[in-house]
Every structure is written in C-alpha cells, then in structure tokens.
Specification:
Elements lengths: L6 E3 L14 E2 L3 E2 L7 E6 L2 E13 L4 E12 L6 E4 L1 H6 L6 H8 L3 E3 L1 H13 L1 H6 L4 H17 L7 H6 L13 H10 L2 H13 L7 E14 L18 E9 L4 E9 L4 H14 L5 E5 L6 H9 L3 E7 L3 H10 L10 E2 L4 E8 L9 E7 L1 H23 L10 H6 E5 L6 E6 L1 H10 L2 E6 L5 H9 L2 H13 L4 E3 L3 H30 L10 H8 L3 E4 L5 E3 L5 H8 L5 H18 L1
Parallel strand pairs: 9-12, 9-20, 12-13
Antiparallel strand pairs: 1-2, 3-7, 4-5, 5-6, 6-7, 8-21, 9-10, 10-11, 13-19, 14-15, 15-16, 16-19, 17-18, 21-22
Helix pairs in contact: 3-17, 5-17, 7-17, 9-10, 16-17
Length: 586
C-alpha cells in the first residue's frame, strides 16, 4: 500500500523487512555526522542507514550488544544524503529539515468556510479578470487576500495579516504567506492607474441604458499616522482631535452594488463635493440616473447642479428646515388622520404638494410631507429633556459672569445685569419652543420627478443598504481610522477597502434575500454572525501531510451556505482543490 505526502512510503506485508516498514519523509537530509554510530546494511537494491542509539551489557554472554534503529535510506544520487524516516526525527530533533519548516509556517488547522464564500463572490464578479489587467499575478493574490482579511477579521491593520494567513487558505500564488513588510511594500508600490483602471472597467460593465437610482453618502475618517495630502482638520461627525479625510461611496440601489468611491480633504464639506461627484458620474457614462441623498446635501447649488446634468433626485429634509417648515405648518392637520394617506409599511402618513422650493427656483418640485406619531412623541420627549437640562445648567450659573453658547439663546432670552454683566435668569422663548413642538414628527422628501408620497418614501428607504455599507466600512472592516504613512499607501489601502466593501455588500444581500424566504429570522444570518459560523468549517492536516475536512457541515452552516448557492458537495470539492494546491506548493 502506497501513501503519498509527508510520509512518502509505507510498505506492509508478511515478508516485508522491518526496515521497510518505517515511514519515510519526502525530502533528503545529510547523513548524520556521528562517528562510530552510523552503519549501513544493503537489502536488495537499498542501502539502509542505521544509528546506534545505545549499548547494553549482557551478563550471561559477557558481551556488549549495540541497539540500532533504521533512520533512513541512502540516496542513490548523492551518497552523503539519505531519505529520513520518523526515527530520524526522534533521534535528531534539533536538525533542520525542509518539510518541518514548511509545516511550522502554516497551521495544521485551516478555517475555510468564509474564504469559500468570498472566493465564490470574487468568481461571480470576475474580479480576478478585471484586476488582472492592472495588477500583476503575484501582487493580485495578495490584494485579494488583504481584502478578504479585512472582511473576515474585521481589521485592516497590515501588521496582523500574517496571523490571519497562518490559518486560512489564500489567493496568493502557491498560497504563499507574505510578511507584513511585503504588505507594506505592496501598498507603497500600487499606483492610481491600477485603481482607476479597475473603477473604469467596473462601471463600464453596468447597463447604462437602464434607469437607476444612486445613493451617495459620505463619512469622515481619522488619520493616526503619516503625512497624507488629503488629510486636514475639518468638521468630523465625531471629533477626537485628529486630522481627517472624507470618504464617499456611490451605491446603485437597483442592483445593490457599490459603483465608485470618492476621497477628498477633510475641510471640504459634503455639499461642495457632491457637485464634483456629479461630473464623475457623467464621466463613467451614467445618464439615466437619479440620486437619493441625505439632508446634508440639500442646498440650492446642488439642486441646480443636478438640474444642469439632467439627473433626477430624491432628497430628505427635516420638517424644521427653513425652506419647508412653513409648508409643513400650512398643511398641518390636513392629512395626518386620513387613512387614505396612511403608508402601512412604515406606519406613517404622507401627502404630496407641487410647488417651487424658493422664489428663484426654475422648476416646480414634488414636496412629500410625512408625519409619524412615534417620531413626534420621541422628538417632543427629547426637546423637553434638552430644555430641562439647559435650564438646570443655566441656573447653576446665576449671579455669575458667565457666557453661554448660541444653542441657549435659541430657546431662552438670557437676562444679565447691565452694570456688572452678571447672569440673572433665563426666560423661555415660548413661540420658538411651541413652533418646534408643532413641527415634531414631520419630515419631507423632495423629488424632481412626479411620484406618490409612498413611492418617494420607498425610494429613500432603499438607501438603508448604503448606510449599512458605511457602518460595515467603519465598524466591521476596522476602517474608522487610517493607520498608514504616505500618499501611495493611503490610496492603495482605500482602494483595497473598496474591493472589500463590494464583496461584503454582496454577502449582505445574499443573506438578506435568503432570510426573506424564511419563516423565522435566525440570528446567524447577519454578516458578522454568518462569518463567525462559517469560520468553524475547518480542514486539518493529518500525518500524510494532506489537509482534509475535519467534520461534516452542520445544519446551521448548510443554511448559511445555501444563501450563496453552496452545499456540502461544493464545499468538499473546494476543500480537495485547497488540499491539492497546498500539496503542489510544497
């Protein structure tokens, strides 16, 4: 019987010599330099190498009998070398052997479940083909490995990549495990041409004849290291005192795919950047598109820019915003209790008014006004709590020379002693507070095209996936901060992060679609939970040096794999391929 792998030969039989029954390793080593202890014995065509490991004195015969063990077979090509067996490892444990070094560099237990899912998505998107046009084969595998690493481990720190590679399959040639210094070199060497080339091809593959809606949103990221040109002190949503840069993603809500990304200096606000992004969308060939935007992008200049590009839009506006609050008050109590205006999916009432937003507006817009009883109760409660806290704070500083921030003067008239500037007491601005209460629970969505209040709300709600994408970017990919030195490395890391977002977003949509088919909502069908469960699918390396599945796929894992069109047989097929690649890489 022949067993291949680390132990290359195992011969067993009634007439089999004892020396041949040992299991031999599949590499050569130097015959040990142990004077007086190495002997040879020829049997057939093979010269066996013996090692004398002990001597025992026999009182009866009054002779010393040597104890020898076969440690290998002499090489026919080089008489100074031999093919060792497991006894050699026992008697010479400190000797360097090639295969043992290889085994130490990779874990004997590989976690393959999440990697298999990611591999399928990469194949479905033909990402290797697209990236292969711009990134050489050696680096391409590492780029995909870094994207996969950030998804599975929820981390983007390059210095920890080798720890991940140690116990996972890889896309790199021969599944080679690269060091953190190689990761750093790669990030420094990648060019704008590579990322731009991918984005051009990625967007060229879209159907530009189809009318799509793009949700465009941005977030800011802190920078903890390095001198990077786009990093400036700006207006972060959460200020931790670090310089920032802004990062935005355009997302196709129809096909549920990220399209392209933007990065721009921290001092540039969202409103200004949107106008540049509109030019970029046109450059990618998008013509029949509409934009779904958050309230941060609502401005006259942005609306005019979208009109100039002939792009339709859906923009959310708070009911208290200056351009719409009067319109809300004019229509208050005209639709909130009419069942015909009820939108059942969200338990919200809505109506639509057609008019210009401001006097110089060139077109009439469709302004959809909504009211939520739950939202009204929440906003009133928050306002009451805020006013109570503000007043308590001000009362602590009566009879003191004290200056309050602008937020206080919005709700209170602050009375001071004209002679010494001492703060005396606050007086409620009752009209302001009552007006804010009147507007509680209301919000508006403005659309450039005619549609019902329900249609506008459904379109706006479709941007929820985009918001989850950003939460995934900052929470699950470990990208709240950029820890990198230099512009090249920063650009490369942002690009690899975008590749990871494409893949992770696809994982999310697959799981969401599968969960919609189920009667229950299992807690393992979220992206983080599913990945953790899939990580339990493992391959182990046995004594023949080949990796095999450690155990059968569980019912829970089968349910998750089904979302991606995978089953136990496909996992077994992939597992055999992994084992084959690792064997060929030795």
């Amino acid at each position: 019987m022949l067993v291949s792998g680390l132990y290359a030969t195992l011969l067993i039989g009634v007439n089999t010599p004892k020396e041949a029954m040992a299991m031999y390793l599949d590499f050569l080593v130097k015959i040990p330099n142990a004077p007086g202890k190495i002997t040879y014995r020829k049997k057939g065509d093979t010269d066996y190498v013996y090692y004398e490991y002990d001597r025992i004195y026999d009182k009866m015969s009054k002779k010393t009998n040597p104890k020898r063990a076969t440690i290998g077979k002499k090489s026919e090509a080089d008489p100074t070398m031999m093919l060792p067996n497991e006894k050699y490892l026992k008697f010479f444990p400190d000797e360097d052997v090639p295969e043992m070094s290889h085994r130490v560099n990779r874990s004997s237990c590989l976690r393959i479940g999440s990697w298999l899912v990611i591999r399928k998505i990469i194949e479905d998107y033909k990402m290797t083909d697209i990236l292969g046009k711009y990134i050489n084969g050696k680096d391409l595998g590492l780029v995909l490995d870094l994207a996969t690493y950030s998804i599975i481990t929820e981390n983007n720190a390059g210095q920890y990549y080798p720890d991940y590679a140690y116990n996972h399959p890889l896309f790199s040639n021969n599944m080679h495990i690269y060091s953190d210094s190689k990761v750093s070199d790669l990030l420094q060497s990648m060019t704008d041409e590579q990322s731009v080339g991918f984005l051009n091809d990625w967007n060229a593959n879209r159907d530009h004849r189809e009318k799509i809606y793009i949700t465009y949103d941005s977030t800011n990221k802190n920078c903890q290291a390095g001198e990077i040109e786009i990093v400036e002190y700006g207006h972060p949503k959460t200020d931790v005192g670090l310089p920032i840069f802004n990062h935005a993603i355009a997302y196709d809500v129809n096909n549920r795919e990220p399209l392209f990304y933007e990065k721009y200096p921290g001092s540039i606000n969202d409103v200004s950047q949107l106008q540049l992004m509109l030019d970029k969308a046109a450059g990618y060939g998008y013509k029949k598109i509409g934009f779904i935007l958050d309230r941060g992008y609502f401005s006259r200049s942005n609306i005019k820019s979208m009109d100039d590009h002939k792009y339709s839009f859906v923009i959310m506006v708070k009911g208290m915003y200056g351009l719409v609050n009067q319109l809300v008050l004019e229509n208050k109590d005209t639709f909130e209790n009419k069942w015909a205006n009820h939108i059942d999916e969200y338990d919200i009432y809505g109506m639509t008014v057609k008019r210009k937003l401001y006097e110089t507006d060139e077109k009439e817009r469709y302004i959809h006004i909504y009211h939520s009883i739950v939202k009204e109760s929440s906003e009133r409660t928050l306002l009451t709590k805020k006013l109570r806290q503000m007043k308590a704070y001000m009362m602590q500083h009566t009879n003191e020379v004290f200056t309050f921030g602008p937020g206080f003067s919005r709700y209170y008239i602050l009375h001071y002693n004209d002679k010494n500037g001492v703060f005396l007491f606050p007086e409620d601005r009752t009209r302001v507070i009552e007006r804010e209460n009147d507007l509680s629970g209301y919000f508006c969505i403005i659309t450039s095209e005619r549609m019902t209040a329900k249609e506008a709300l459904n379109l706006y709600k479709s941007r929820d996936t985009s918001e989850k994408l950003f939460r995934g970017d900052k929470s699950y990919l470990g990208d709240k901060s950029l820890r990198i030195y230099g512009d090249s490395a920063a650009e490369s890391k942002i690009f690899i992060e975008f590749l990871a977002l494409i893949i992770r977003n696809r994982i999310y949509t697959y799981l969401k679609d599968e969960m919609s088919k189920l009667d229950k909502r299992p807690n393992y069908m979220t992206v983080p939970a599913a990945l953790r469960e899939l990580e339990k699918i493992e391959m182990v390396r046995l004594t023949d040096n080949q990796y095999r599945l450690d155990h059968a796929i569980t019912a829970k894992q089968k349910a998750i794999l089904k979302a991606f069109g995978l089953d136990s047989n496909i996992v077994k097929h992939y597992a055999k391929d992994i084992s084959k690649r690792l064997k060929e890489a030795r």
